[in-house]
Amino acid sequence: MILFVFEKMNMEVTELARAGISGVLAGFLSLGFSSCPGGKPAERLFSALGSAPAGFNRPGSGNRAVLEYRLGEKESRVRISVEDRTWTEVLPAAGRIERSVLGFIKETARPSASRRSLAAAAGRIAGELIPFDRTLTALGVDCLIVIPDGILCRLPFEALRTADGRGFLVERYAISYAPFRFGPSLDRSEEEPGGSCLLAMGASVPDRPAGAGEADAVFEEMPGVREEIRSVSRFFDRNRRFVYLDGAASEATLRRHRGGRYRLVHIAGHGTTEAGDPGRSSLLLCRSAGDDGLLRAEEARALGLAADLVVLSGCRTACGDAPPKEAGGLPRAFLDGGARSVVATLWAVPDRSTADFMKEFYRHLEAGRGKSRALQAAKLGMIHGGRPHPFYWAGYILLGEPEETILFN
Question: What is the per-residue pLDDT across 171-195, written as a single tens digit (0 to 9) for each?
């Protein structure tokens, strides 16, 4: 089991390399694990192996940088790893960063917010968090893996501005996140996934279960969910997909697929937060006998879906309303359960624009782009296609393995 490698990290890394598992280390590092229990950072791993492990920057993927943030009371730090280069930058204290980020998130999640004021705030926060942007550009970096800390788990780095002020970071970098350690098998990338290509589920008219949180919320019908699920399903052959809409989109239906292997799992519907625990997110499905209609983290983990990519297309499925110490909730549950990557959302986005965004995302996946680059392309399509405000595209984030392509049919 791969987690055993980290639990036994007191072994010398050189011994691991001699044992022929540098590829495993590279796999973990490719997910953004620049440190591990026992305090052995990425540069020591690289040093012991002689250089950045093969696969850390794979041919054709461009150069990637891993940014690991640690917020502190007096000062914060970020460790940057690019191939065999590693260095640390000192950043402002956590309090200052939190004030800046909270205000920016609040405005970014509001479509009526002034784009000019947003751009100014995005440039200021970028200066605080990525003062080395020009260095990354000089090194040819075009892919970022961010390991956030605290409030940064809620920040879409894509919406920050480049050092020259000419555009968003997403226009320069494909960005993904690795905000927690998990241990799904990393040896499936060269395998043909078994089972079906797609498991898709959409609840456009869900039942409102007791304990759904947001006591005053009104869960309206979302016709865009039907459009979204139907457009996604068209990418796959009929005999290689399972598609469930409305009344069939229930927890009981999901449990029938427990332990299955899929290339893509797509679940669309209302997102909600737990009553008394706003840091946890859930997806609102349709009720069935013995179920409350809420897909919670512990239930998602128990599904054990070994998917190449899980898409959670609902409001705030990434981390809920409360700033977490470590992002978790549904994304972590699916990753723990066997998914290699998860796309989730940081705030509520209209279901019509979500349907358009997902259609573009899947189109780029089908064309052979890796996960983070397909997400980047979909965001660029929104920016240059009439919806430049970050509200419409910055809330979708990718967690986990960033580069694999998805085989359609």
Answer: 999 999 996 544 444 444 445 445 5
